[in-house]
Every structure is written in structure tokens, then in C-alpha cells.
Design brief:
Length: 81
């Protein structure tokens, strides 16, 4: 199934990462990093019930783009290179 059939995206948007989630545990997080060096850690439970119109997970500066999205727990150490 095409992503466009799951939720609407505009012509200026594109999917750069997908993460499979089976359980929205309270100590689980989604880590996101951009080309411009911005990093965001969001509790996974924030994504448990997303509206059909979608959810803005990270507000990107113009010209920046998402390069990674990974699951993590509150016990994980993260190193970005």
C-alpha cells in the first residue's frame, strides 16, 4: 500500500523515515535528527492516536531535512556522527 493512501501529504512533503511500532511503552521515545543538526526526542505515546490529517512531529527550518528517526528508551545512550 502506498503511503499516500495511509495519510495525506502535500507535494512539498516527502516520507524520509518509517518506524515500525508494536507497543507504545511509557519509557519509549522517537529520536529524530536533521541535516542541520537539530535533534528531537519525543515520547512515543504522543503518536499513539494520530488524527487522519496527520501530526507534525518536528518543525523543520527551511532547507533542513530529516535524516534519521529511531526508537529509543529512556535508558539508551545516543551518539550522532
Amino acid at each position: 500500500m502506498a503511503v499516500i493512501n495511509l495519510f495525506p501529504i502535500t507535494e512539498s512533503e516527502r516520507v524520509t523515515a518509517m518506524v515500525s511500532v508494536t507497543d507504545f511503552k511509557p519509557n519509549a521515545y522517537l529520536l529524530m535528527a536533521t541535516c542541520g543538526g537539530e535533534i528531537k526526542k519525543t515520547p512515543l505515546v504522543n503518536f499513539a492516536s494520530v488524527r487522519s490529517s496527520g501530526l507534525i512531529a518536528m518543525d523543520l527550518e527551511e532547507g533542513d531535512e530529516l535524516v534519521a528517526a529511531r526508537l529509543a528508551t529512556d535508558q539508551d545512550d545516543v551518539i550522532l556522527v
